[in-house]
Amino acid sequence: MPLPPAFVINLDGSEARMASAAAQLTATGLAFQRVPAFDGRGLTPQEFPDYDAKAALAYMGRPMRGGEIGCYHSHLRAAQAVVNSGAPMGLVFEDDMQLVPGAAERLQALADWLAGRDDWDLVNLGANKHRIYSNLVQFGAHALTRAHYFPMMASGLLWKREGALAFLQAHDRIFAPVDNYFRHWQTRRDRGLAIWPPLVETTGAESDIFAGPVSRSREDRHPLYGLIKQRRLMADKLLALRHKYTRAR
């Protein structure tokens, strides 16, 4: 099958980052479209109707920043672009993406292998860590796995069109950064996959979405922040292990 269309999330005014992403995608032969990022940097969380401050404090142990909520909305826009494309799959990249050598060939092999399969929603192409998984197939030095414990980072994703639609339809409130939400969502559905080692890294450029001071005062954290974080991680790991060993039977 042809390579899936690509969609690049990019803030207005971030021309250099878009140019870098465009050059890489053009070199690989990937058709791409820019998705204007939602700029939430100048907004307070309370200005987002779908932000659930109480749920964020309960789940993350801290409130969210406007930039984080804007990033979430940017991924909603990108998922909608995948759905609107009509293609069976769609690639979504953040504009600080850095494709590893040979990425185009691996993406083609990945798309061919996944074509027609119904047991997945999205593939994390840029995972920063890889834990609690089951191997599915090997593409050269890169393994495709069922990521029972869905990896963090959303710099590179491959959506199944139906998976992107499910993400959009499930959206009613925001209580976690988008990569945290993907872990929460897919660890429960067990329909998330990952490539390891990653096919997409980041350039290391400072985020434009989170431009400005990013340090967070401990005063706005829940008094039991550490316990809440450990509870969240442990709950997801236990669910992931249950999926892993249930599938192994």
Structure, explained:
- It contains seven helices and ten strands.
- By secondary structure, it is α/β, with parallel strands linked by helices.
- It has one domain (6-248): Spore Coat Polysaccharide Biosynthesis Protein SpsA, Chain A (Alpha-Beta Complex).
- The strands form two sheets. The chain has an eight-stranded mixed beta sheet, with helices on both faces. Strands 4-10 form a two-stranded antiparallel sheet.
- The chain is globular and about 50 Å long.
- The relative contact order is 0.19.
Largest sheet: 8 strands, mixed
| Mean pLDDT figure | 93
Uncertain segments = 210-215
Give the overall form: globular
Distance between the termini: 33 Å
Determine and state the CATH class: Alpha Beta
Instruction: Encode the helix/strand succession as letters.
Output: EHEHHEEHEEEEHHEEH
**Number of domain modules:** 1
Calculate Rg over CA atoms: 18 Å
Number of E-state strands? 10
Q: In brief, what are we looking at here?
A:
The chain is of the alpha/beta class and 249 residues long. The chain contains seven helices and ten strands.
Chart the SSEs and their pairings:
Layout: E1 6-10, H1 15-28, E2 32-36, H2 53-59, H3 66-85, E3 89-94, E4 97-99, H4 103-114, E5 122-124, E6 133-139, E7 142-147, E8 156-160, H5 161-170, H6 178-189, E9 192-196, E10 200-202, H7 225-248
Parallel strand pairs: 1-2, 1-3, 5-9
Antiparallel strand pairs: 3-8, 4-10, 5-8, 6-7, 7-9
